[in-house]
Amino acid sequence: MKKQLTAALCLNFCMFSGYAMAADDNETIDVALIGGGIMSATLGTFLEELQPDWKINMYERLDHVAEESSNGWNNAGTGHSAFAEMNYTPQRDDGSVDVSRPPKITEAFEITRQFLSYQVLNGVMHDPGSFLNNTPHMSFVWGDDHIDFLRKRYEGMQQSSLYKAMEYSEDPEVIREWAPLMMEGRDPSQKVAATRMEAGTDAEWGEVTRQLISALSEKHDNFSLSTGSEVRDLKRNDDGSWKVTWADLNDNGKEHSINARHVFIGAGGAALPLLQKSGIPEGKIYAGFPVGGQFLVTSNPEIANRHHAKAYGLAASGSPPMSVPHLDSRKLEGQQRILFGPFANFSTKFLKDGSWTDLFGSMTTSNTLPMMKVGLDNFSLVKYLIGQVMLSEDDRFEALKEYYPDAKREDWKLINAGQRVQIIKKDPEKGSVLQFGTEVVASEDGTMSALLGASPGASTAPAIMLGLMERVFPEQLASDQWQGKLKRMIPSYGQKLDGNEQLTNEIRAYTSSVLELGDTQPTAENAKRIEALKARARGQEPGSEQADDADSEDTAETVENV
Fold first, then answer.
1. d(Cα 129, Cα 136) in Å, to the nearest integer?
2. First to last CA, the chain
């Protein structure tokens, strides 16, 4: 008990006091993770499972991990599954709706659910309700044209096995049952429509990040976390490794350096400037455009407990995808809340806790002209941002009342959320383009990599990191050792869920059971297979010392069937 208490106290000191567990200068490690957010936490967790003998260091500029984009107050908290986000399904010029993108996002989030389930089953994470809760996802529209769009979207998505459980209604009373606050006080003559997926989730990505990094620090001797440590330079060594120079902000900025065979920059808005410092040619084609977000929030339990959904609307004509309004049920710091937004604001900072010089410092001779061209080509974005900056308190409240007609101003307050840096990328045909979403950038030899961009981001971190490992660690990923472990962690790894309704239902029932979501129940046909998946995740499959001999034959058969 004394040993456990001592370990817990040491961990708390290292995680939350800003103490830097620094390696000696000139030491060589296997992987340097820059940034203490969800991406670095996910990659570190994968690598410690797949290659536990590798030495991994994580560097976080702030005194605590998960304080920027991953923090629950700095993002929408949606488990992005493409169930409700209508910006993922644009309407074509001929009036049809393009539903090709949602399955890719949905499958990516199913990987996230499996990744989190594995961590819970193996004691890496605990108390699923602290970081993921069942919250139905809705798309909500009004007006004939928008209703026609939503109906076509629903019909198109019904062709995929991933959305068979989606409901559609134009009946105000049905929609009132789904989201009473959105219908109370609404003009009864207004035509409305909505879709609903019961299997939606509300996520606290900050808590996910904290639990993952806590387990890495506590359970792995080869992992080291340095908080209050700002990486300031990246230089390639003659042997192909990288010299990482960082400053201890808790020791008057005293600089240290370490050599790393691989570097991953998962530093949110700070990723672009660090990628530029590396000098790799793959990073020279990028620039960044910062956009901040604000939300109206209520913590009044009489209101918050009556809205159990993430209800997404349509962005106004001419506005960018990140402006999609949504009325979200959230669980933050253990309390139910409702957030409405986002409202954009402009800042030259790349991080919420960044510098006003971030944007100007990222401008180089190779990306300044592309940035200017994007500004000219995306005048609607510029106009939108100007309009958002000019919004008054009355304007924001009127926008809220379109989704919650009976809202009272005294129940709501405005909060500043996180900063996002949208990707500006050179394009051989257009010269340059403003790109929404995330993008992995890696050097030709795979020793330097970074993640740029934003949404859906945290929701698809495991899928993004799997894609990164395919590029950065191709030989290891092809090995039997890594393949076997990945299939234990992600039972659907290497398989496609879209078009396989049986496998989709089994995987959803498995993760729903482990994560205590209750959105998909096991059936008589798949119950044994689901238990087999749990046993395999715990290392209790037939042949392991922990397996129950009486169940070995049944378990072997069910795992093989999955």
1. 15
2. 41
